[in-house]
Records
---
Amino acid sequence: MITDGRNADARMAHEMALLGREPGLASRRAFLVGAASLGALGLAGCSTGGMSAAEARLAYGPVPTEKFPIPATDISRLDPKYYRRTVQYASKETPGTIIVDPAKHYVYRVEGDGKATRYGANVGRDGFRWSGDAYVGRKAEWATWTPPKEMIARQPEAAKYAGGMPGGLDNPLGARTLYLYQDGKYTLYTIYASSHPESIGKGVTSGCVGLLSQDMIDLYGKTPVDTKVVVLPA
């Protein structure tokens, strides 16, 4: 667990400073946005009904049973409209399909009968958004993160992870990762676990989609390999 501001900033830099790529080209390298800081991320101001604050404290509480115990999310930094909830959602997609709506900063898991589980998300920033169909080609818990060589060239301090950064609380991919594929090839886009509630509801990545760790664990457990993923236009 991170216990001081310097380490927190370092972790944020690792999570948010993954290399980007041109929007709409799912065959090129992409990860998250370069060099953002906690202070640069503001909170959205409005809220909606649904989960109460007390329920949210439970839903986003600590997860001590994990390989690397996950601390509670500071929900004071999360707009309540991004709490996980079941919503009415008309879709022709098969139940289980994941739909990313970057314009609204939501990820939906289609449940059928006109309903979906909705999660707040961070998404691609301006110039790095993409849309189209993909599928979950593989999954990983506490995945190893390997910085692209282009990132190492720009940020030499990342070179120490050229052989891969082991999974853990400081790893940018977090507790769970869904790797998105098209036509049998890894797009280098992911849906990943974030521990930074300030990023939810923001366009801060280079095409990857982040859910809070507790939400990502929930989605991951319901999502088998080959699940369809639809990314809507922003």
---
Amino acid sequence: MAKLLHPKATAVWLVDNTTLTFKQVADFTGFHELEVQGIADGDVAVGVKGFDPVANNQIDQEQIDLAEKSPMYRMKIKFNPAAHDEEKRRGPRYTPLSKRQDRPNAILWLVKFHPELADSQISKLVGTTKPTIQSIRERTHWNIQNMQPIDPVALGLCRQTELDAAVAKAAKATGTVMSDDERRKLVSTEQSLEMDTEPRLPSSMEGLETFTLSDSRDDEDKKSNADYSDADSFFNLPGGDDDEDEDKKD
């Protein structure tokens, strides 16, 4: 499917130079009708210079004339042979210059927390080469001592949905998932959140599950050998100091 060059600038030009409705301009440029109305009101695309789609061979003037006469007419982008199958073109993901310095940290994070991912998957996620991934796996990268693992989603190098899809594909290829931690590494975020958590003690409490300060058997023996023949021993009343005080008062 052909796409417009500079759609917002094209919308600005159509609003300024034609009598098309907001709906027609929105359908042609791919914007919402309210956004086109904002362009007409001067609230949206302030300072954007109009881009003539007729002069740039994106549409014929005849289509614009028909659309101005009939509000129900929908304009179509002129076919461009050079743009044929442009969406099917494959290649490494483009990474902006401002984020390329963070790419090794993202690769280190993927290698550390998702070792099941293939080099081709990592290359597709963050836009790198296989030799770079291999050097980070083998810790032979020239800057490995200064690198820190950082989530590529947090760095803006890929989307969470793309990472989840790659992890789910790798999990399907590896087969069964064993521990709770490994299970969360090999599945997507949505699947991980739906899983039941395994009950576990805090690391600081491990080994103290049955620890007590006294032997419970000794307490039971003491209770069984206790003599409750009189009321004082049964109710565990204090000594006779209070009786002596009362005698002195009398």
